[in-house]
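quick one, two chains, predict together pls
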Amino acid sequence: MINAVYQLTAPRMIEVTYNELELDNENVLIRPSHLAICKADQRYYQGARSKAVLKKKLPMALIHECMAEVVYDPTGKMSPGDRVIAIPNTPTEDDDIIAENYRFSSKFRSSGFDGFLQDYVLMPHDRLVPISKDVNPDVAAFSELISVSMHIISRFDRIAHERRNKIGVWGDGNLGLITAVLLSNIYPDTELYIFGRNADKLAYFSFAKETMHVDDMPDDLLLDHCFECVGGPGAENAINQMIDHINPEGTIALTGVTENNVAINTRMVLERGLRLFGSSRSGRDDFEKTVEFLENNKEGALLLENLVGDVFNVRSITDIHKAFDADLTHRIGKTILHWNK
Amino acid sequence: MIFAVVLAGGIGSRMGNSDTPKQYLDLGGKPIIVHTIEKFYVNPKFEHVIVLTPESWVSHTSNLIKKSLPNAEKITVIEGGSTRNETLYNAIKFIEKNYGLSDDTIIVTHDAVRPFVTHRIIEENIEAAIKYGATDTVVPATDTIVESLDKEKISQIPNRATLFQGQTPQSFNAMKLKKLYESLTDDEKDILTDACKIFVMKGEPVYLVEGEVFNMKITYPFDLKVAKTMIDGDALKGE
């Protein structure tokens, strides 16, 4: 079947191209329905990656946050119209030790190959996680981002010691809010402290014990563990502030993407016996936990609805441009695309 | 119930001729007609896909479909008529015989040689046919259209802003189309070569669905070259 693929061919230039989808006896044909723009997509769109990276990756269809509807499943395991979250990470080999999302050989949609700006996508069953129609589809659209937070917390849970009386989250953006919402639900007895730079954004964290400007942090405030959801040029200050305000043997989860190398106070890391670990992409387990969370935790899902920003009905390439342009102007929230192209 | 009607009729040539009908030519390793049928085959809204070809091509077309699609029971190839409207009429008769016709029977009719049709175009055709009874897929005209009644001099140049180029699908309430077709005289049948035109001439509204420029009709060798270039393009790099 000839399939229309909407690829970024150069910064701010999207063109339709075509591939051939070979219907077989195994793979599921899905139709993307609700999509969300990620900062990584925006960086490609704006051309804010090195020339060498752009040359290597483009042309490529953007978007890796996707809810879709099943169109055709030759195995009959899924029915037409079923809603699914599509997993962008695509492992190419098995490994008993290294998770699918960290293998060098794994490919990732809208990074290593075409994302979901396509008429149809053919995917194996293990890359699709069914989701109930009761879940708000605009929230389901950014399940991938939620699953990244879920992944971070799952790893944290395995790595960090069990005293979790006070946890700090640095970063008042999308990832910070999602991580804080999940933490407050997974560890209801933990006191959550949120640190950011923007009073209007911090106001969304009403469920936390306390929110404060990073400059107003009391000297004597000590936390058991910290989550860094800052990234960018602010990551360095954030990480060093965490090191200053963490109890011995605490764990710091690093999640913010920064293009720069970061200088951190390793003397204090050594002195306090700290553990720093990094996380980025998520795997199937994290998606399953995310869907379970969205289906069963109405209150948490409602808090995440606050992140739904502009919603665009996309019927043309011009609409895609409008969505990316609008996304740039938002300080918090997700730009959602209703894919009707 | 909603039915897809893929029109591959109106071919006189036999297999083996150098002049093989375009819908059977290879595009990316598969006959064009198979690409087209797949778009309707996978869409769960269609109860059945009816493919209409000249009698001599029915068996060949069935074989091609069986080779490419795992569960071809949803597709039937039958003989078309001598004109486009007669072919459509045959499709309606097939539906009537096998499924019965009711007020909400919808047919989405499509040229076999338009394999680039998209999910949105098909969905909007279904939606509009249910709501309005008849719909045509169009794109705004880009060339200036010139009318010449004597084929020598321009008789008029219509305002391009009001002109559109017709594509397919064209979708209809099947009962309504049947009724209108049966009301035509033989002379009218000769003139009204397009089903939408029947509706328009009988004063019935036909609503527009926005097509895509790339939903092209592969008619000439030039078109096939363009289509081949389209699917051999950069999308492959993204795989």
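The CA atoms of residues 168 and 226 of chain A lie 5 Å apart.
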